[in-house]
Amino acid sequence: MPEQTSSPLPPHIHWEENGEQRSARWRSEAGMPPPKRVVIADDTTNADTAYRLACEGTALLWRGDFQNARQLLQALARRADHKGKSGKKVKAPKVPASPTEAFHLHRQAQSQRARTLAMLLIPFDDGYTIPLRRAPDVKLACNEAYGRYEAPFIASLRELLGLIGAHEWRRSGVEIPALGARIHPHYGVFSPVRGEYVQLVADAQLPAGANLAFDIGVGTGVLSAVLAKRGIARVVATDQDQRALSCARENLALLGLDGKVELQVTDLFPEGRAPLVVCNPPWVPARPSSPIEYAVYDPDSRMLRGFLAGLASHLTPGGEGWLIVSDLAEHLGLRPREQLLEWIAAAGLKVLDRTDVRPVHPRAADATDPLHAARAAEVTSLWRLGAA
Hints:
Elements: E1 12-17, E2 20-26, E3 37-41, H1 47-55, E4 58-62, H2 66-80, H3 99-117, E5 120-124, H4 139-146, E6 153-156, H5 157-172, E7 174-176, E8 181-183, H6 195-203, E9 212-216, H7 222-229, E10 234-239, H8 242-254, E11 261-265, E12 274-279, H9 302-311, E13 315-326, H10 328-331, H11 337-346, E14 349-357, H12 372-377, E15 380-387
Parallel strand pairs: 2-6, 3-4, 4-5, 9-10, 9-12, 10-11, 12-13
Antiparallel strand pairs: 1-2, 5-6, 7-8, 13-15, 14-15
Helix pairs in contact: 1-2, 4-5
């Protein structure tokens, strides 16, 4: 008989309470390991003590009022942002020597802030109930993000609030003018709040005879929906992430387009060729700090390079590949324009045309953003590529 292998046990968190050693399952969508040191905290715990413990890597398992826990988390966030009780900021850090250094320092600060704020923990009991006073009903939000309830567990309050926020985004949706409808992003799936890239796909001239298109990295399904609405008879959309595929499936059904779009679980391209192949890869070539950041960060430009390398062999004669990408990485010094052009040429491709648009999101005009200079100069482009 073949040897049977058991699946690894889920991670557990351990602590002492009322003189007893206890443990529970640990859950972190950000991929954080369970804290090694845990103390019990409640309504008597003050913010300065909580912040000191959190910075030292000691987690606080909350046993008090839920709304007080939210207020404590806000107090921790103020301290993490270098604001004390007086609201005065501490001495400003030195000015980064380059945009690249500014980016890495910003990411480092974000990571440290996230680790500190994740130290405030909440218990979850049967059916995703929270055994705390004034705790909200989070069953639906947790089911959407985690799936079916399995066993009691501990998770960070910050993660829970992220789940609740994602649930509200999913419920209300994002208005997409190019569709005249809303797209409903799921937890962990990149939301199409930056509508300028969607509009580029809605406005670009379709290749002659384009009755089939491939959408590489479907995400919420927004670009597949735009292509189908524009009259392309069949769209084959791919993704490796089950959350994205589920999200796209639901959105396409709500729009009445599920019969025109076929979803496939695969890395990059489906089988065959098409007169139009569209890809909107993550725009920043950096390492994600959590699994749900893969929609934003593309380590070593893996998806971008993979798309370019395989595009020519998946285009029909005279077909076009549409690459939608921001030049933010160029302004941050993470990937020069020359590198992108070299990859295009090495893949046996040529640039047929390029359409640019300035971003309109609030961060582009926020002078307090550490990356303001790069964001203010950013341009999003639709590159029309063909076989050389």
